Fold this protein.
Amino acid sequence: MTLLQIEKIGKSFGGLRALNDVNFAVNNGETVGLMGANGAGKTTLFSIIAGHQPPTDGIVRFKGDQMTGKRPDQICHAGIARTFQIVRPFARMTVRENVETAILFGGARHASNQPLEIRAKDILDQVGLVDQSEMPSGALTLSGRKKLEVARALGTGPELLLLDEVMAGLTPAEVAKMLDTLRAIKADHKLTIFIIEHVVSTLSDLSDRIIVLHHGVKIAEGTPREIAENKDVRTVYFGGDDT
Ligand SMILES: Nc1ncnc2c1ncn2[C@@H]1O[C@H](COP(=O)(O)OP(=O)(O)O)[C@@H](O)[C@H]1O
Ligand SMILES: [Mg+2]
């Protein structure tokens, strides 16, 4: 079943065409990777899906319903959560309070009898942050802040999780741990994952399918193996054009 449908999405910033006629679907239960060099339009596409920026052209559908034109909180309540590439928790709140806030924000979708604190603790446990629960978020390491981003997104109770470079800047050991975490939360929360990741091997490891953007245009879509063998992708990635 199609969960997310991207239809003819375009985005212009003044004279810059950041996205142009982008079309694809993400199916229920899949992990789909979004690949592309810096400036390819990946984060802009996430912002459009989550309602943080309007597209210039096209429509985003989620479970058949048009999301374009809705507010971020409405899209969140529909079941889409994103993390931000630039991590921005409420620094003075504790780690636990940040997750509780996210649970309350997404609350219209997931009424639960469990106390907020218990629900937050469960999520923090899953991402490996439970020992830092009472720490101010501003005191977390980069790895901790990335985990908190995932926890906050998870707290809103999504069906579709958009992850924007949650492994950037982590050590290989931290990346390995994050991959395990993502697989575990995907299974436990029955999530569909749409993920941006700079390291191609990491993205290939996690994804059922990969979509490649280049200067705002979709140039390839396929299994990680098909993408690795794709001529256009190879030219863009290994042909000396690194813009
Ligand atoms: N708010 C904005 N205003 C103007 N230009 C923007 C804005 N956001 C992104 N861009 C430009 O759009 C292009 C795509 O950016 P982005 O989506 O962040 O790429 P990626 O995430 O793939 O690195 C870049 O050229 C970037 O400079
Ligand atoms: Mg980006």
